[in-house]
Amino acid sequence: MELGMYGLGRMGGNMARRLVRGGHSVVVYNRDLSKVDELRKVGARGATSLKELVGALKKPRHVWVMLPAGDVTEKAIEELSTLLEPGDCVIDGGNTMFKDDVRRSHVLEKKGIHYVDVGTSGGVWGLERGYCLMIGGKPEPVKRLDSVFATLAPGMGDVEPTEGRNGGSAEHGYLHCGPVGAGHFVKMIHNGIEYGIMQAYAEGLDILKNANSPNLPADQRYDMQLADITELWRRGSVVGSWLLDLTARSLTQDPTLSKFEGVVQDSGEGRWTIQAAIDEAVPCDVLAAALFVRFRSRQQHTFAEKALSAMRHQFGGHVEPAKAK
Asked: Which of 187, 269, 305, 320 is catalytic?
């Protein structure tokens, strides 16, 4: 299938590469044209403007926007609305607030342009592992894009379907979750849960690290080897996960996590998850506490926050903000 990809950052660039490897025809554009040149070398077609990208695609056109949520994505979709025609489709694969999806889709629908939102998880590892895709939109454009989703997704791999299931795309790593906004809603909750899981690991590791505290009785102090313990938990433990794999990797590379200050950013989805819980009157004690710890981390730092920073760096390539001078 032919697809335009606007935004060639940590994820967009690798998604374009994966699509090219999968046999798709991909036209790419990025404001930093050096990234366009990099993708040309692996078989993508390059464009020097969004207008040129749209002009290079056959109708009906499909343009995937892979940019940070907020103004930059808003402006990109506004520009696309002036370039695309009825029957064309905009796909937003960033971490957009689902209410913005609904609003944009109403505007584009008046022009006959389809809108599909795709919550995308996979981080910097997605090129090889594939991307978990949570999709929202009307059935027609989603069905048209099925081969793209199938290529980007991990596939079934060696993960057996849950007993009792009767097939479906979820077993291959992508799912049409519902109408416009549903994909980003599911991704929002996904990231809220991610905050909670990461916080649980981080706090547990902090307790283990401080098991040799001089405040404890001498015969109850333990000098725990965190790299070994996390490696141990990767095998047969009920708390095993990919996040634990990445944590073990960080601790093996840097047992004291000295490269991290412990300043932990939040990208929006955690806040939106809490707001959704408030709107629905659903208690979410763990997810709210995990978000508030990230706020606190910008004022004071514990080993737990260093562990959170290390995990974010491993799965998403996130870098702590530079120290204020």
From this structure: 187
Contacts of residues 238-243 at CB distance under 8 Å and 24 or more positions apart, as own/partner, are 239/201, 241/197, 242/315, 243/194, 243/197, 243/198, 243/201, 243/311, 243/315
Structure tokens at 298: 């910008």
Pairing of strands 2-6, 62-65: parallel
325 labelled catalytic: no
Per-residue tokens: 191: 């990231």
Structure tokens at 19: 């699509």
Catalytic residue among 35, 38, 194, 203: 194
Asked whether 90 and 113 are in contact (CB, 8 A), the reply is yes
Q: Residue 97 gets which letter from DSSP?
A: -
Query: How confident is the model over 223-241, as pLDDT tens digits?
Result: 999 999 999 999 999 999 9
For residue 8, give both structure tokens: 């060639």
Distance, CA of 234 to CA of 297 (rounded, Å): 27
pLDDT tens-digit readout, 36-72: 999 999 999 999 999 999 999 999 999 999 999 999 9
- Tell me how far CA of residue 243 lies from CA of 37, 87, 121, 188, in angstroms: 33, 40, 13, 18
Give the three-state DSSP class for 271. Answer: helix
The C-alpha atoms of residue 63 and residue 2 are separated, in whole angstroms, by 9
With a CB cutoff of 8 Å and minimum separation 6, the contacts of 324 are none
Q: What is the C-alpha separation between 301 and 304, in angstroms, rounded? A: 8
Confirm whether 187 is a catalytic residue. yes
C-beta separation of 122 from 129 below 8 A: yes
DSSP string, 69-95: TTHHHHHHHHHHHHH--TT-EEEE-S-
